[in-house]
Amino acid sequence: MTRLARALALLCFALLIGAPTAEEAEDFVATYGRYAVAADQAVASQAGAEMLEAGGTAADAAAATMLALGVANPASSGMGGGGFLLYYRASDQSLTFLDFRERAPGASTPDMYDDVPESMGGRANSASQLHGLASGVPGEPAGIEAMVQRFGKLPLAQIAEPARRLASEGTVVGEATSRMSAAFSDQMKRDPVMRGWFGPDAALLPVGATLRQPELARTLQAFGRQGAAAIYRGRIAREIVRANNRFGGKMTLQDLADYSVVEREPASTQRFGYRWVTAPPPSAGGFTMLQSLAILEGLPARWRPTGEGGPNAAFLHALAESWKGPYLDRERYFGDPDHVDLQIERLMAPERIRARADAFHPTLANPPADFDFPLAPEEPDIVQSDNAGTSHLCVVDAEGNVAAVTTTVNLPFGARYTAAGMVMNDEMDDFARAVGEANAFGLIGGAPNLPGPGKRPVSTMSPTIVLDAQGRPVICAGAAGGSRIVTAIQQVVMNQLLFGMNVREALEAPRIHHQAHPNTLRSEEFAPLPDALIRALTARGHEHETIHNVATVQTIRIHHTDDGVRLEAGSDPRKGGRPAGS
Ligand code: GLY
After folding, report:
1. Would the CB of 483 count as within 6 Å of ligand 1?
2. How far apart are CA 82 and CA 407, in angstroms?
3. What atom in ligand 1 is closest to the CA of residue 430?
4. DSSP letter for each residue of 488-553
5. Cβ of 461 less than 6 Å from ligand 1
6. Which residues make beta-bridge pairs with 391?
7. What distance separates the 2 farthest-apart alpha carbons in the chain?
8. What is the DSSP string of 177-218?
9. Secondary structure of 264-317 in the HEC alphabet?
10. How far is the CA of 98 from the centre of ligand 1 (A)?
11. 558 located within any domain
């Protein structure tokens, strides 16, 4: 497929991310005094709040919310996928990052997609996006178990119960799920379980229909009783391998048995008076945000963003320019840090940041190459080991613990087949299918991110917690939306911290996105930039394009008051979620 065709595919995905109905968008922000959950599905926020009411921690609530999300909107996440947790524990003020991203099966090779036919019909149809070869080994069940064992208080059976109930009794299909099903219904109907979700001759899952998932309910019950072992070994593991292989994949029981969660040092930096803590590699998202903040802070004083003037043309221009360099670094250097010599310190070296800040022109958009400062003398070695759709939620509990989780099956309905009721991911598309080729999000793949046994693909997911000068968490944030995840998070957080917006204003504000390739500044149909701003940006030389939205963000603002806290929780109106809390 050509780059142009992939860019068009990308645009289609942007259009697919559902706009909510007016009714769904009504209560997307709420304020609480004890605890709060912000997810992109109301029933999932409620599942989390149920755990908090029962005395659970933010980890228990995040786990219940994740499981319920996978039931209520199987297009975006679920047990067949994976994700990242960033956790702030109030008792010792520690920050922990758990990586439960999918891993490439043992049979994966750098050239595994070279000879596979490109088109299997319909959208997102390449072998890294559809069916068995597209699936990494799921990490979600192990991740949930790890976070509950580490930070939780409640039994897994209690945590899994709201999701089991929803799967068994049925959930109401929302706008986003319906829209995504319309685009992929033909492919989904090739799977016997998903076929059963559609009425006779139905071309989509209608908004308001009841979606019952009895197979998934049984899997959730087994997970609640036996933990992750129920998924990675025994009957369900055999079912995963059978389904994957039936759809052309090469996953084995050994791949499942070998899966493990990795704890990593979170990425963090002090900028604009706050400590920003976010995802380390294999996410490139955290790196992009931290580098962008460093460049912005390093600009000469007269161009540096301040609270004055709001997010005006000068600020949006500086933002777009600040992202170009880090996205180029991503293309060239990023891969699984356990398999690639990823030299983050060299990439973040102050002289490199200064060179990028020096290359910035306040009234001219530079070509991305002007921000390209390759590491000398040569690119890092790639160390191939021998053995070698998305949703974000935030929780703050009554003890002050904070959980930021981003979870994904990658493209809508993952690889569009199920195993034991679970939608299986197509996370393999986050690898480079070939060096220089773009994935579904238009991200160009580099050699360090080629597939290999046991590798984790580069991600943009960036669960983020920002702390104030006293070390208290003040914002939890994260997003879904492929390559646009991190640029959206950065704007929603800066809107609050720099421009004094409340959560409603910060979520409603127009967003922009730039990822160097294509060399195009994107703004939203959902929240249009005023024409004058577009003119001011194009006058600086930016190519401009409108897409439906720039990701969907969930955030909680934690206001510390004399009496305790005030929690302002928001679920992005772009996806129709609602927060819950007390
Ligand atoms: N699958 C989306 C991401 O990991 O960035």
Report:
1. no
2. 6
3. 1
4. HHHHHHHHHHTT---HHHHHHS--EE--SSS--EEEESSSPPPHHHHHHHHHTT--EEEES-S-EE
5. yes
6. 407
7. 64
8. HHHHHHHHHHHHTTSHHHHTTSPTT-SS--TT-EE--HHHHH
9. ECCEEEEECCEEEEECCCCECHHHHHHHHHHHHHCCCCCCCCCCCCCCCHHHHH
10. 15
11. no
| Residue 114 buriedness (CB in 10 A; 0-12 / 13-18 / 19+) | exposed
SS3 423: strand
Choose the weakest-confidence range: 360-364, 376-380, 577-581: 376-380
Give the structural domain span for 250: 3-262+390-409
Ligand 1 pocket test: which of 10, 460, 513 has the largest number of ligand atoms within 8 Å of its C-beta? 460
Pocket mutation for ligand 1, best pick of 103, 278, 390 (most atoms within 8 Å of C-beta): 390
pTM: 0.93
In the predicted structure, residue 517 carries a pLDDT above the cut 90? yes
Cβ–Cβ < 8 Å for 422, 407: no
Per-residue pLDDT, 120: 57
State the catalytic residues. 390
Q: Is 375 left (phi over 0), alpha (psi -120 to 50) or beta?
A: beta
Q: Is the CB of 161 under 6 A from ligand 1?
A: no
Mean pLDDT for 439-458 is 94
Q: Are 223 and 160 in contact (CB under 8 A)?
A: yes
Ligand 1 atom nearest residue 461's Cα: 5
- Could you tell me the two tokens for 542? 């930016």
Q: How far apart are CA 553 and CA 571, in angstroms?
A: 7
Residue in 288, 327, 391, 441 to alter for ligand 1 test, most ligand atoms within 8 A of Cβ = 441
410 CA closest ligand 1 atom index: 1
Q: Are 15 and 522 in contact (CB under 8 A)?
A: no
Tokens linked to 322:
């600040």
DSSP structure class, residue 579: E
pLDDT in tens, 123-145: 778 899 999 999 999 999 999 99
Coil/strand/helix, residue 233: coil
CB neighbours of residue 452 within 10 Å: 24
- How buried is residue 254: exposed, middle or buried, by Cβ count under 10 Å (0-12/13-18/19+)? exposed
Say if ligand 1 is within 6 A of residue 552 CB: no
The DSSP letter of residue 118 is S
- Alpha-carbon distance 353 to 358, whole Å? 9
Look at the chain and report how many structural domains it folds into.
1
CA distances to 59, 482, 524 from 574, rounded to whole Å, are 26, 15, 11
pLDDT score, position 377 = 53
Residue 211, both tokens: 């979606």
Half-sphere exposure of 510 (CA within 13 A, CB side): 21
Residue 507 lies in a domain: no
* 356-375 exposure pattern, b = at least 16 Cβ within 10 A, e = fewer: bbebbeeeebbebebbbbee
416 lies in a domain?
Answer: no
Q: Report if residue 284 sits inside a domain.
A: no
* Cα 349 from Cα 146, distance rounded (Å): 34
pLDDT tens per residue, range 267-319? 999 999 999 999 999 999 999 999 999 999 999 888 888 888 789 999 999 99
Among 20, 19, 41, 36, which residue's Cα sits nearest to residue 577?
41
